[in-house]
Write a structure and sequence with these properties.
single chain, 46% helix, two-stranded antiparallel sheet, 12% strand, TATA-Binding Protein, 7 strands, alpha+beta
């Protein structure tokens, strides 16, 4: 359980392997982040709209052994809820005690764990932000989408000072509805406003999305205009932070699995059967596979599409 250190700081305990430095390295190469998150000191800075109330908040995260401290800043109305959100962003809300045993059973997973020790999925700040990214990134290069997202944050969001550094936070749903949304065609503007409405109505709440069967959650997400199967899986796995989702619509992951397991033209059902062996960490293994693919190919950094 989180332990309060002082009025602004909370201490978390990682259950299972976790390396904040690995999370920082991931974020530094994660195109949607598109902002400096570290200064070489081992400190991670985050700025985002809080899911409760959507006020812009910040978090400075440090690790000391198994302990992870979270120092909040900004207009924090509900500190416990924001700490829970940070915990989910770093996948510290999931008990990872059994993850290494999975690597001992599956050599492919074991090799990934050895290459990326302590790396857990680093999530979007919320399902709302993941949904916005999904809309922004449709049919354009990822680097273009990141630039547009950054511009929206600069022009429509509110900066937060985190551990002495001023960072832009993506606008909350109400601000997004009022924003002119520079650099986007009308259809994406309409869809982003629809995402904002869905968030305000509670349809993008992480706890709710994770409380139901994933198939039900995915079906609910695809009811939002502009959100198809690929985007819904992204929102559930990397926005709500569900640890055990196998994406059926993610071509890059399927290609990397095919290569890693020495397969020839496998079906989605065959890949899903392999992924069943990763339970209850299917999202985690998928993240490691995609991370290795990007490190080896640089296809996203080179301007690939979402």
């Amino acid at each position: 359980m989180p332990k309060s250190v002082d009025p602004a700081t909370t201490e978390l305990t990682a259950r299972g392997p976790f390396d904040l430095a690995a999370s920082i390295r991931f974020l530094e190469g994660f195109t949607p982040a598109n902002q400096p998150v570290a200064d070489g000191s081992g400190l991670l800075r985050l700025a985002f709209p809080a899911e409760v109330g959507w006020a812009p908040v910040g978090a400075a995260v440090r690790q000391h052994g198994r302990a992870v401290s979270v120092e909040l800043s900004g207009d924090v109305d509900d500190p416990a809820a924001v700490v829970d959100q940070v915990e989910r962003i770093l996948s510290l809300d999931v008990d990872g005690s059994g993850f290494l045993a999975l690597g001992r059973r599956d050599p492919v997973v074991g090799d990934l764990q050895a290459r990326y020790p302590g790396l857990r999925p680093v999530q979007f700040h919320s399902p709302y932000e993941a949904a916005c990214w999904a809309i922004i990134g449709q049919r354009i290069r990822i680097t273009q989408a990141a630039a547009i997202r950054s511009r929206i944050a600069d022009e429509c969001g509110h900066p937060v000072t985190v551990a002495g550094q001023r960072l832009p936070a993506f606008p909350g749903p109400e601000e997004l509805q009022r924003c002119s949304l520079p650099g986007l065609p009308a259809i994406k503007v309409d869809r982003l406003r629809g995402v904002a409405s869905a968030a305000l109505e509670g349809h993008l709440a992480a706890a709710q999305l994770r409380s139901v069967d994933p198939e039900i959650a995915l079906a609910q997400l695809t009811e939002i205009p502009g959100i198809g199967p690929f985007s819904a899986e992204l929102i559930l796995a990397r926005g709500a932070g569900h640890p055990d989702v196998f994406p059926t619509a993610e071509r890059r992951l399927h290609e990397e699995m095919t290569l890693a397991y020495g397969l020839t033209d496998p079906s989605i059902a065959q890949l899903a059967a392999i992924a069943d062996g990763w339970r209850p960490y299917r999202t985690w293994v998928g993240l490691l596979l995609r991370t290795r693919r990007e490190d080896d190919t640089h296809e996203i950094a080179g301007g690939g599409r979402t």
